[in-house]
Design brief:
Layout: H1 6-9, E1 13-17, H2 26-36, E2 42-46, E3 52-53, E4 56-57, E5 71-74, H3 78-91, E6 95-98, H4 108-123, E7 127-129, E8 135-138, E9 145-148, E10 156-163, H5 167-178, E11 183-188, H6 197-206, E12 212-217, H7 223-233, E13 239-243, H8 248-258, H9 265-275, E14 278-280, H10 283-295, E15 303-308, H11 311-323, E16 327-328, H12 333-342, E17 353-354, H13 361-373, E18 379-383, H14 392-405, E19 413-416, H15 427-432, E20 437-438, H16 441-458, H17 474-486, E21 491-493, H18 494-503, E22 511-514, H19 517-527, E23 531-535, E24 549-553, H20 556-570, E25 580-584, E26 590-599, E27 603-610, H21 613-616, E28 621-625, H22 630-639, H23 643-646, H24 657-673, E29 677-687, E30 695-696, E31 699-703
Helix pairs in contact: 3-4, 6-7, 7-9, 10-16, 11-16, 12-13, 13-14, 17-18, 19-20, 22-24
């Protein structure tokens, strides 16, 4: 079945409404680009002021065109866009590219006009790109459509590019041409009033000419749809995204630029990680990654060999490999022998291999051949600082010959010249051989690390979203939340919070609530000393800071004194005292924090990190967006910087990671079952060794305003 976006990317005829004969005008640039791209369909300039434009007959109105028009490119003043689109609908136009700006991105007046525009588009069942966009390009030989106003002649290739910024369009096309990156398709989606980024992703996924998808993104409209779509696409085509608005200042800039709110950046990171999307932090990094992905195979592992003819760049590369979590590999004895027998006596033979500055084509060829033959090598960073007295071209030809001879091994080779690549004789031979060349070694190593990240995602184990049907008591949780809502509480803390966790099969430290001193003593005697006492009042959210925690209670007298102290501090003006939680002292282990925050755009975002100083100062936490899979929970636990503390640091017992992972998944399920819950924080969750019980010691739940929401009944 034809896709409705075919009217945008594969039209049989195009009308340029607002075409111009004036050099430098956008209407002239777009029409000229369509002509120069040798577009295969019919072209119709529309402008009431001209009879001909660029030797083509010009029509006063789209209604005057005698033939059917499939696509209209609109470049008229904003206030003329609405009647123009109306005429397009009456003409039977299927697709619109609205270049004109001044809509949602400029404020409420523009937003209202954009809504009016969309009403016309929907009434005539048209599809529209924009408004406020740079245009569309399709390099397919059957179409050859360049409906952008770029000054650059883009190269044909296998890269599909989606840009939410029209202003970046020219820079993207120009820079890509400098790097010899060619496009299959390019689209500037502007305000996304009609055609969304997810729709374009799906279209590029189905496009046989597109092998990698690049995306400049300012805001996500539907994170759930993006996650589902991207997960499917990355199985066969990598997606590389630059998402702007990482900082609070950047997010505010987005709001004024596109009229859309940016989601929390931690949620964006989590979403991309779960989808297998490669996130680049800059446009330059995006193209570094693209060059590597389009020209070299994915690495099978993280063992990297470095070849250099200069010590400094070799050290830089070594540092970069180690800092990005890859391994500077150890060579086989046979590799060392091969290098020793054929390189200079002063050459460095261990990794990195320094062939020294005087090395020529023979030495480079031997070094490349030796390391690519080594079974301990998964990838090679090849540094060539062009020395004055060496034939550069001969060295490069030797490198290319050796790399080609080992192409069957499928090991990526990324090169660095430590100078502007084009200035080195032989650089274009590297381009033709599909060996990417970078100026600095760190850029090459970073690109390799992102290739490895993608490779690992593709090779991850098959996972499912686990539901703990038999471990949860939804009715009990529903009752606790319902009672809190009736009392107009915004928080659930203390004993009730732990009851909710327990109802979802999460282990909690032995606790009980006490309303008066007699109950407190009775509870203490049942639980057994030593004990903690904590204020159990939903109005007190920061217990420790307010004196609401007493530890080391060993005797009944301690309980009595502690209770009276709590009552004295936390009774209100009317003498009301909420009571305390008496709690058994938890077995020592690794303190962690597990939580959930409900984002307006992304929904429930689950957090895991190390507790104590690690979360308060170092912020050693990771996030994932619901729904979570088993693999997501595993990655969360392994991704914290302090994972070594859970993995038996300095001979201590390893934590029971399965208990941690299951607790994370149960919090995710709780968040999805109960939309009334705005946030959850278990702090600390004590992670103990295998064979011991890991427990939640303290918890807090904040309620949102969706009190009418109810969980699905009958899950357990």
């Amino acid at each position: 079945m034809p896709d409705k976006l075919d009217s945008i990317f594969r039209p049989t005829s195009v009308a340029v409404i607002g075409a111009s004969a004036r050099k430098g005008a956008i209407g002239e640039a777009i029409l000229r680009n369509i002509i120069n791209s040798q577009y295969s369909g019919q072209m119709f300039p529309v402008n009431p002021k001209d009879q001909t434009i660029l030797d083509l007959p010009c029509y006063q109105s789209i209604a005057d065109i005698p033939s059917q028009v499939e696509l209209a490119v609109i470049i008229v003043p904003r206030d003329h866009v609405l009647p123009t689109v109306e005429k397009c609908g009456q003409k039977g136009v299927k697709g619109i590219i609205c270049i004109t700006a001044g809509f949602r991105e400029v404020g409420e007046e523009g937003r209202a006009k954009e809504q009016e525009l969309m009403e016309v588009v929907r009434r005539y069942d048209m599809r529209m790109v924009g408004p406020n966009c740079f245009g569309v390009l399709n390099s397919d030989n059957e179409i050859n459509l360049n409906a952008t106003f770029t000054k650059t002649k883009p190269l044909t290739g296998n890269v599909g590019f989606i840009s939410q910024s029209g202003a970046l369009g020219e820079a993207i096309l120009c820079y890509a041409t400098e790097l010899h990156i060619g496009f299959s398709k390019f689209i500037s989606i502007g305000n996304k009033a009609d055609i969304s980024d997810v729709e374009v992703l799906r279209y590029f996924h189905a496009d046989p000419n597109t092998e990698i998808i690049l995306f400049y993104l300012e805001n996500l409209d539907d994170p759930t749809a993006f996650l589902k779509t991207a997960k499917e696409i990355v199985k066969t085509k990598p997606i590389v995204v630059v998402k702007s608005g990482r900082t609070e200042a950047g997010a505010k800039a987005i709001s004024s630029h596109t009229g859309a709110l940016a989601g929390a950046d931690s949620a964006v990171d989590a979403l991309f990680a779960q989808a297998g999307v490669i996130r680049a932090h800059t446009m330059e990094e995006m193209f570094d990654i693209t060059v590597a992905l389009t020209q070299q195979p994915l690495p099978r592992g993280d063992r990297v060999a470095i070849i250099t003819n200069a010590g400094g760049p070799g050290i830089l590369a070594t540092d970069a490999v180690a800092s990005l979590g890859m391994s500077v590999t150890t060579f086989n004895d046979s590799t060392i022998k091969e290098l020793r027998d054929n390189l200079s006596a002063v050459a460095a033979l261990t990794n990195p291999v320094d062939v020294i500055a005087s090395a020529g084509p023979k030495e480079y060829g031997i070094a490349v051949d030796a390391v690519l033959s080594d079974e301990n090598v998964d990838a090679v960073i090849l540094i060539f600082v062009p020395p004055v007295l060496v034939d550069h071209h001969s060295v490069i030809r030797s490198i290319i010959k050796s790399v080609k001879e080992h192409s069957a091994n499928r090991k990526p080779v990324l090169a660095c010249f430590m100078t502007v690549p084009k200035s080195v004789v032989g650089y274009y031979d590297m381009v033709e051989a599909h060996i990417p060349v970078f100026i600095f070694p760190e850029s090459a190593v970073n690109a390799l690390s992102r290739m490895l990240e993608y490779s690992r995602y593709l090779n991850r184990p098959t996972t499912t979203t686990t539901r703990f049907y038999c471990d949860c008591d939804i009715e009990q949780v529903d009752d606790i939340i319902g009672n809190a809502i009736k009392k107009k509480q915004k928080a659930i803390v203390g004993f009730d919070a732990l009851r909710i966790l327990s109802a979802y099969g999460i282990n909690v430290v032995k606790s009980a609530h006490a309303k008066n001193v007699e109950q407190a003593v009775q509870v203490a005697q049942v639980l057994g000393y030593p004990l903690f006492m904590k204020i159990d009042d939903p109005l007190v959210l920061h217990k420790t800071d307010q004196g609401g925690v007493i530890s080391g209670l060993m005797f009944d007298d301690d309980i009595i004194a502690g209770f009276e102290k709590m009552k004295d501090i936390f009774s209100d003006d009317n003498g009301y005292f909420a009571g305390v939680t008496i709690q058994k002292t938890a077995q020592s282990g690794v303190e962690t924090i597990i939580g959930m925050e409900r984002d307006d755009l992304f929904g429930p975002i689950v957090m895991f990190g190390l507790g104590g100083v690690s979360v308060e100062v170092l912020q050693d936490v990771v996030f994932r967006v619901c729904p979570l899979t088993d693999f997501d929970a595993v990655k969360m636990v392994h991704s914290v910087k302090g994972f070594a503390l859970l993995d038996g640091f300095r001979g201590k017992p390893k934590s029971d990671l399965v208990q941690l992972q299951e607790t994370i998944l149960k919090i995710a399920q709780l968040a999805e079952d109960f939309p009334q819950i705005h946030s959850v924080e278990i702090n600390p969750f004590i992670s103990n060794a295998e064979g011991q019980t890991s427990v939640a010691v303290d918890a807090r739940l904040l309620l949102g305003n969706s009190y009418k929401c109810k969980p699905l009944n009958g899950l357990c």
